[in-house]
Amino acid sequence: MARFLWGPFVAGRMPSLSDADRETLVSTARTTVGDELRSITYFDDGDVIEQVYLRSDLESDADLVGFADTERLGFRAQTDYGNSELGPYECTIRVFEDGYLTRVIDGDHGAFVTTDSMDLDRFEELGVSLRGALRELGE
User: Fold this and answer.
1) Is the separation of the CB atoms in 64 and 49 below 8 Å?
2) What pairing do the DSSP bridges indicate for beta strands 49-55 and 37-44?
3) What are phi and psi of 62, to 5 degrees?
4) Which helix (H) or strand (E) is 115 found in, with range?
5) Burial of residue 71, with CB atoms counted within 10 A of its CB: 0-12 exposed, 13-18 middle, 19 or more buried
6) What is the pTM of this model?
7) Cβ distance 106 to 90 under 8 Å?
8) Which CATH number is 2-138's, of 3.30.70.60, 3.40.50.150, 3.40.1650.10, 3.30.450.30?
9) What is the pLDDT of residue 15?
10) SS3 content of the chain, % helix, strand, coil (to 5)
11) Whose CA is closest to 112, among 61, 35, 36, 53?
12) Could you say which residues of the chain have pLDDT below 70?
């Protein structure tokens, strides 16, 4: 059973995402990743950090502020890799002993998704799908 966590983790801030925006991120990731989805966290280039999904078998004690601070480095990656022969920057995949983190940035906001192990092609699908969802949220 999935557990949804609504609201920011920064004191004094109102949530920046509507319920519809949260549902867009969750349904996009669930459609691509399925049961391997562990969590989804939305962040911007300021101080907004919102965990919008956490699988029920996981503890809610992750250092989201620390993770978001690291993943905000991706805002620079958009420009650093902008003229690369590899093409435009799409996403970052981080490999951990017990799972994976995929970060996607679009403009001034992004999301990182944690998952269990899965085929590499699905990470690329996740990145492309989330980028589209974030673009929609930004419009």
Assistant:
1) yes
2) antiparallel
3) -65, 150
4) strand 109-115
5) buried
6) 0.85
7) no
8) 3.30.450.30
9) 59
10) 35, 25, 35
11) 53
12) 1-15
Instruction: Find the DSSP H helices in 15-119.
Output: 19-33, 64-71, 74-80
Rounded distance between C-alpha atoms, residue 127 and residue 105, angstroms:
9
Taking the C-alpha atoms of residue 103 and residue 135, their distance in angstroms, rounded to an integer, is: 14
- Domain spans of the chain, in order of start: 2-138
CB contact at 8 A, 81 and 88: yes
101 DSSP β-pair partners: 94, 114
Residue corresponding to tokens 């419009």? 139
- Cβ proximity of 81 and 89 under 8 Å: yes
Q: Which amino acid appears at position 3 of this protein? A: R
Instruction: Quote the pLDDT of residue 3.
Output: 44
